[in-house]
Amino acid sequence: MGAHKISGIVFFSLVIVLVGLDSSASINPDVALTGQGEALQQKYAGMLGAIQKEIAGAVPAVDEHKEAAFMEAHAAVEAVPAQPNPNGSKIAPPRYAPCHTLYAIAQSNAVIAVAALFSDTDAILASDSLDAKLAKGALIAHATPQGLAAFAQQGQAQAELIDALLNDDALILQIMKMGGAYEGKYGEAMQNFRAIQAASKRAHEGMFQRFALASCLEHPDRAVPENDMTAAELGIAPDDLEKTAIIAGRTPADVMIEMYMNYEQAYLDGILDPAFDSYTDFDYRFIFPEFEVEHVIWFREMLRNYRPDHIVNPDTQWRYCAVVRTDVPYTGGVRRPVRPELNLSRFQDYFLEGGICGPRAFVGKLSTAAFGIPTRGARQTGHAAMSHWTPEGWTTVFGAHWTFNNWRGRCGLDFFLETQARRDPDQFMKVLRAQWLGDALGEKKVNPMAYGVGGGFWNALAFYKKLAIVEEARIAALPPTGEELAESNEEAVTTIVDQIEMTPAQQTIVFGDGGVITIPAGAATSTVNTRKIRFMKTIDGEQVQVHYALTGGRPELLKYDLEAPKAGKYALTARVCTVTVDREFMLRLNRRTLIDIPLPYTKGMWEDTKPVEIEVKEGRNTLQFTAESPNKGFSIKYFTLTPVS
User: Fold this and answer.
1) How far apart are alpha carbons 358 and 237 in whole angstroms?
2) N or C: which end of the chain has fewer CB atoms below 10 A?
3) Helices 425-440, 169-177: crossing angle, 10 deg rounding
């Protein structure tokens, strides 16, 4: 074990073996290297070899007894036995998690052992003198010389991209601080990044540059499965399970440019969340959803029309994604598509009848991501959930604790620990330097799917440094959000219903030219919000709309008093917004006349209902609206009464 110094003789004989140890890199064995590719591979391996030699000479000696004690304690963590599962629970008790007593004891022993090493390693981990070398070595090792060569041999443009990257120390450092490229696909990431910069002047600096780069690192080839779950989890027929977000005839760069430009413009238009320009570089990785930009555009407009209260919700754990609990009920046995003749998108289809965990997780992920909230999936055994950023830290939604989920080859606990440790940027740089050291020198990584298990000396040290950062800073963790709604529609805590203030203009019936009468939603005789009837400001704040909710129990009445200047017949329409089909609401006029008013399916846009003829008397008239139970949600902005000739 010793001082972790590698002699020049041993080094050159090991370099090709060492760079093949990183299991997180994605090397396609089917991509054969050409003669040019083999030459490029040797070139990149030579670069890595030179860096390894230089790093090895600078690594401080580590007390071999302390190191041996630490690595022995660390190995004991992996050796803990699995917990028994006598009842055959679908979600078995975890083996590698702090809730497992034997694991917690073993990890505690490793924490004690590693504490003795922090002072020995602090000199190199606290210094930025080797950052450029460490980051470059870690990048080449992660990408692997073979992986870089396979990309570069495609053509001159690709080779120049790799050369430009490997000669840009500042960019390499920025990339590696962001966490590197997913699956080691640095060539693809840079190809997309440069394409975005060619399309947008703003993507060259500041927040937009960071956002563009981070997005490309997380989605280097944009071949991210839209449905990273089984057909059973989605509640659909296997033949309907789409596999990729790539549309025939479009390159990954095309998709990334389109998505980036959409978000850039949405930010400039003030549509994205107010926190969008305050994220860390790491958080920017997780904004692009795994869905087509058309879904993003529709969802933003739909939610801004249909439920603007979800957009301004002060509870950041439920902001945006509360639309799942209000309008996408947990429902089993739904065949997709629900109404094939309507040719709807999958998300429009999910709102028709709800669904099981998969559709609800998809809607939740799109709801937050569409408005620029960093978002990830949270796949659990036989269940699909989601997770997203909040100012207080990341939280899981519609599922269990981080202990029980994973996403894109990484367990929830490992991801969450990193998000916590990164809240102390200065201390986290020590984590990164330890990881870069281990990666550049060819160590195995800590297993991303088994919390705190495996890995060579420096990578294991980095893991425990993250634990130490969180412990010393006492960084709190948010509990799961809506865990009880994972496979249910019953909330554990009754949602508090906020009231709103209205201006006189928002509550005043308008008598216009030609005898047209406009009754704004806010002119109701009672504007007290309940679980069934919610008054809210329109997205621009200028008007008031009312939402008649899917949830909330028994039907309630929405009542308006109209002082008609004279008796007569009118054509009544309502300006409505709906996300479901085949619905109607009922008008009761002056306690006598009952009229059913069909609701158009507006796909979340504003439309008028078809006119129905009513007859009002001179003076006071009472209009009462309701919907029979069970109903689906719909929103109303105003009613219009137009005189009938």
Assistant:
1) 13
2) C
3) 110
Q: CA angle at residue 115 from 110 to 121, to 5 degrees?
A: 115
Long-range contacts of 161-166 (CB under 8 A, 24+ apart): 161/187, 161/190, 161/191, 161/194, 162/44, 162/186, 162/187, 162/190, 164/190, 165/190, 166/44, 166/47, 166/136, 166/140
Report the alpha-carbon distance of residue 386 to residue 239 in Å, rounded.
Answer: 24
Domains of the chain: 1-177+431-457 (no CATH), 218-423+475-495 (3.10.620), 504-643 (2.60.120.260)
Residues 415, 423: Cα–Cα separation, whole Å: 13
The pLDDT, as a whole number, for residue 28 is 63
What φ, ψ does residue 623 adopt, rounded to 5°?
-115, 120
The answer to whether 362 and 339 are in contact (CB under 8 A) is: no
C-alpha–C-alpha distance, residues 365 and 399, integer Å: 13
Distance CA 621, CA 639 (A): 14
pTM score, whole prediction: 0.91
Question: What average pLDDT values come out for the chain (645 residues) when binned by 10 residues?
Answer: 35 34 53 95 98 91 94 97 86 91 97 94 94 98 98 98 98 98 97 98 98 97 53 45 51 94 98 98 96 96 98 97 96 94 96 96 98 97 95 97 96 98 97 98 97 97 97 93 89 79 97 97 96 96 96 90 96 98 96 94 98 97 92 96 94
Distances (CA, A) of 393 to 97, 115, 167, 386: 20, 26, 36, 14
Helix/strand/coil percentages in the chain, nearest 5: 45, 15, 40
CB 580 within 8 A of CB 348: no
* CA distances, 399 to each of 149, 334, 488, 585 (Å): 42, 21, 11, 35
pLDDT of residue 556: 94
Residues 187, 192, 193, 199, CA torsion sign: positive
CA distances for 76 relative to 108, 222, 435, 637, angstroms: 11, 39, 21, 64
Q: Cα(161)–Cα(449) distance, rounded to whole angstroms?
A: 32
pLDDT at 8: 30
Length of the chain: 645
pLDDT at position 551: 83
Two tokens, residue 263: 């978000």
Tokens representing 339 are 């109404």
Residue pointed to by tokens 């209000």: 326
Within a 10 A sphere around the Cβ of 76, how many other Cβ atoms?
Answer: 17
Amino acid at 379: R
- The per-residue pLDDT for 11 is 29
What's the number of CA atoms in the CB half-sphere (13 Å) around residue 6? 22
CB 34 within 8 A of CB 149: no
Confidence (pLDDT) at 557: 95
What pLDDT does residue 262 have? 98
Judge whether 77 and 110 are in contact, CB under 8 Å.
Answer: yes
Give 61's DSSP letter.
P
Which residue from 121, 103, 99 is spatially nearest to 111, judged by alpha carbons? 103
- Which helix H or strand E contains 395, and what residues bound it? strand 395-397
* Cβ-Cβ contacts under 8 Å for 167 (sequence gap 6 or more): none
The CA-based angle 517-614-577, given to 5 degrees, is: 65
**What amino acid is encoded at 480 in this protein?**
P
Q: For the chain, how big is the Rg over CA atoms in Å?
A: 29
The dihedrals phi and psi of 268, each to the nearest 5 degrees, come to -65, -30
The conformation of residue 219, written as its DSSP 8-state character, comes to S
Asked if 367 and 321 count as a contact pair (C-beta separation under 8 A), the reply is yes
In 3D, which of 96, 31, 36, 11 has the Cα closest to residue 404?
96
> What pLDDT does 29 receive?
60
